[in-house]
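Design job #97: recover the sequence.
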């Protein structure tokens, strides 16, 4: 039996399952999906192709990819009654809560009987990947007082998502940046939301319950919600010139002050996704104009490195993603739902992997509570 002090907090460095989906080398800033470097996928692949790779294990043939595009497009539109459900959500609610409820409800409109049927699991995977952008965009529009739009049959996943949010087609470079952001966020090993998906899936819960649980896990500020907080922090700093005085003041008030979007449980160097995002950002800013917040982020990174770098704390993916999304006119609280639109690919790949040779997760605890406590009847208690 382990003692409480032997249990690594947050299961840090504890292997919990074998997986063949992605690998991270946190010392050398390497991330690959099914053995292919994420930098190359972000440059040359598409979200659809990367999703196939994650789910199936290999790159698709031309025919498989064309069919996959077609199958996804067929499932983008959700049942009109589900849109009615979303209409009744409070406009002030957080879009991640709306998404979690919508994904759960999606499973009531398209129920799956058993998770031991491979064809039904593939069908549910297609529906989930195809529907998430529709659900995110429907809530985003409804709360602005606009009607949800039907998916655009001629646009790919990234282009259609942008179209459903804004009612106009993205330029080729904006489409490319969204596509690359989706690829960069599609998978990342045993992060909290993926682990949630695997634990939920291990009880043989249906795929919609599994993905909705993962959405809930992603919503926290220590996970996907961090990108919102980074943007709020950059707004608070205001100007690049204020980055140093702001950081000095925060550290004077709290010597263990943590900068949002800096540091990662696995990476001890700069997150490779942050590096790719920065390159993409520079390209998109040539079209959208360079936002002041990007210069604030650059200066803050510069100020942080001498202080935190020795401790292995560098920018993670959330540090630059929010600046990119806000430069595209996307509202801050839609950043994490975009993460979910991407990460559903990884969650489903892990769900399918978990089901193959599944055993329900049931770890052990180290009990640290009281024992042999006598029951005192209510009339004898003060
Ligand atoms: C992720 O992409 O899920 C985050 O970087 C968090 C993690 O990997 O733990």
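Job complete. Output follows.
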């Amino acid at each position: 039996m382990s003692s409480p002090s032997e249990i690594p907090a947050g299961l840090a460095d504890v292997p919990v399952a074998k997986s063949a989906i992605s690998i991270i080398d946190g010392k050398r800033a390497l991330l690959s999906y099914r053995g292919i470097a994420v930098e190359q996928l972000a440059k040359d692949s598409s979200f659809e192709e990367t999703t196939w790779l994650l789910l199936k294990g290999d790159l698709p043939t031309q025919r498989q990819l064309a069919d996959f595009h077609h199958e996804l497009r067929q499932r983008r539109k959700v049942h009109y009654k589900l849109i009615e459900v979303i209409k009744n959500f409070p406009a002030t609610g957080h879009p991640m809560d709306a998404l979690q409820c919508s994904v759960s409800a999606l499973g009531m409109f398209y129920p799956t009987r058993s998770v031991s049927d491979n064809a039904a699991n593939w069908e549910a995977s297609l529906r989930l990947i195809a529907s998430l952008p529709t659900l995110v965009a429907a809530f985003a529009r409804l709360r602005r007082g606009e009607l949800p739009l039907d998916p655009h049959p001629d646009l790919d996943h990234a282009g259609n998502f942008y179209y459903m949010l804004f009612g106009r087609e993205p330029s080729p470079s904006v489409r490319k940046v969204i596509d690359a952001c989706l690829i960069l966020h599609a998978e990342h090993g045993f992060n909290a939301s993926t682990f949630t998906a695997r634990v939920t899936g291990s009880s043989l819960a249906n795929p919609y319950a599994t993905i909705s649980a993962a959405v809930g896990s992603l919503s926290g500020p220590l996970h996907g919600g961090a990108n919102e907080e980074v943007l709020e922090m950059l707004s608070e700093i205001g100007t690049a010139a204020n980055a140093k005085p702001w950081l000095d003041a925060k550290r004077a008030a709290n010597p263990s002050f943590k900068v949002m979007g800096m540091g990662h449980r696995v990476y001890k160097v700069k997150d490779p996704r942050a590096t790719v995002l920065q390159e993409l950002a520079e390209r998109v800013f040539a079209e959208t104009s360079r936002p002041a917040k990007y210069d604030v982020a650059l200066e803050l990174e510069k100020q942080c490195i001498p202080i935190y770098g020795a401790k292995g704390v560098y920018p993670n993916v959330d540090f630059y993603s929010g600046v990119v999304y806000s430069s595209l006119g996307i509202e801050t609280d839609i950043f994490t739902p975009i993460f979910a639109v991407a990460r559903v690919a990884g969650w489903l790949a892990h769900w399918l992997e978990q089901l193959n040779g599944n055993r329900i997760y049931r770890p052990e605890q180290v009990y640290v509570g009281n024992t042999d406590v006598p029951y005192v009847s209510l009339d004898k208690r003060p």
